[in-house]
Amino acid sequence: MNIVVIGAGGFLGNHLLRSFLTQTKNFKLTVFSSTLKPGNPSYKIQYYHWPENSLADAVYKQAVCNADIIIYAAGAGIQPKTETDERTIYELNLYEPARLVTTLTSCGFKGQLISFGSYFELGVTQLHAPFDEKKFVEQLNPLPNAYCVAKKQFTIFYHIYENISKPFKWLHLVLTNIYGPGENENRLIPYIISEAKSGKPLHFTQGIQKRQYTFIADIINVVHSLLGSASGIYHVTNKEVVTVKDVILETARQVEENCGLKPTLHFDVAGGRDTDMNYLALNPAKLYSEWNLACDTSYQGGIHSYFKR
Predict the structure, then answer these.
(1) Which helix (H) or strand (E) holds 47?
(2) 3-state DSSP call for residue 180?
(3) N or C end of the chain: smaller count of CB under 10 Å?
(4) Helices H, strands E: what count in the chain?
(5) Which helix (H) or strand (E) holds 45?
(6) What is the dihedral sign for C-alpha 283, 298, 273, 49?
(7) What whole-number distance in Å separates Cα of residue 243 and Cα of residue 254?
(8) CA neighbours within 13 Å on the CB side: how many for 90?
(9) Architecture of domain 2-184+212-239+281-298
(10) What is the mean pLDDT of residues 202-211?
(11) How many beta carbons lie within 10 A of that of residue 23, not counting itself?
């Protein structure tokens, strides 16, 4: 099976790459990345870095058109403490994957494309109940930033494409907050652990916004279970809806339990970039009913994994 992973240097893409390398199946891997270095004989690296490269360039066409599975895991605009201009956000979350779809259509691709949406596409919603896939696509809530807009537009692009023509399998997986060991050190859980070990006080907003947290290993399991066989849009998430403050307090509790350190927490920051979106949640029932798949790792269990390393 010929697999192409685009964006293999990111948290999700790298976990997918490593999962393929541990499989006993006969995978031929090609990765598009600007950060991974040549030298691993298990896969071929195709250098890819926007804006010096684009998926519309002819050099990428042969690799994608000859693939059986293509996973688009590239993106921009979600990492904390990282300034990304709007042009890059729109290019990597909307225009580049759209160019990929155009290329695949023109070359008669018959395999499977896997792409990812985000529940941040829900924006500022007044409905405080988990959205199913139909309501998720149809909602037109206010969107507070370029990342939300770009991801929403790509999901609409997917939806229109699926309803007009289905020349190949296209699996669009909508994710919530993904986390796990090895993620960006500025993200919530590793940030708390690192700052607590340094003895620094931690400052947060009130943390009242409600979220879902999905452990990276659960997502990888879903992707492998649907590899080559599925098409359509599915919500991939743990069902728990918790406040950000719940996650902060649980992480602090486990720091104290596992490291003997008691973090100093202050909920005194005026506001953050996503505090306007006070409720984001997806209903994963479709994934379970059609494929008997679920993301069962609780946020307490997922946080515990950071202390096993």
Answers:
(1) strand 43-47
(2) coil
(3) C
(4) 11, 13
(5) strand 43-47
(6) negative
(7) 17
(8) 7
(9) 3-Layer(aba) Sandwich (3.40)
(10) 93
(11) 11
| 258 CB neighbour count, 10 Å cutoff | 14
Gap between the Cα atoms of 224 and 293, Å rounded: 11
Q: Using one digit for the tens of pLDDT, what is the confidence trace for 127-168? A: 899 999 999 999 999 999 999 999 999 999 999 988 887 789
Determine the 3-state secondary structure of 188 from DSSP. Answer: helix
% of the chain with per-residue pLDDT over 70: 97
C-alpha span between 306 and 193 (Å, rounded): 9
* Across 271-288, average pLDDT: 89
Closest by Cα among 93, 294, 119 to 210: 119
Written as six digits, the tokens of 98 are: 């759209």
Token output for 254: 């486990």
Per-residue tokens: 55: 């998926």
The confidence score (pLDDT) of residue 272 equals 67
The pLDDT tens digits of the residues spanning 1-27 come to 899 999 988 999 999 999 998 875 778
Six-digit token pair at 239? Answer: 């069902």
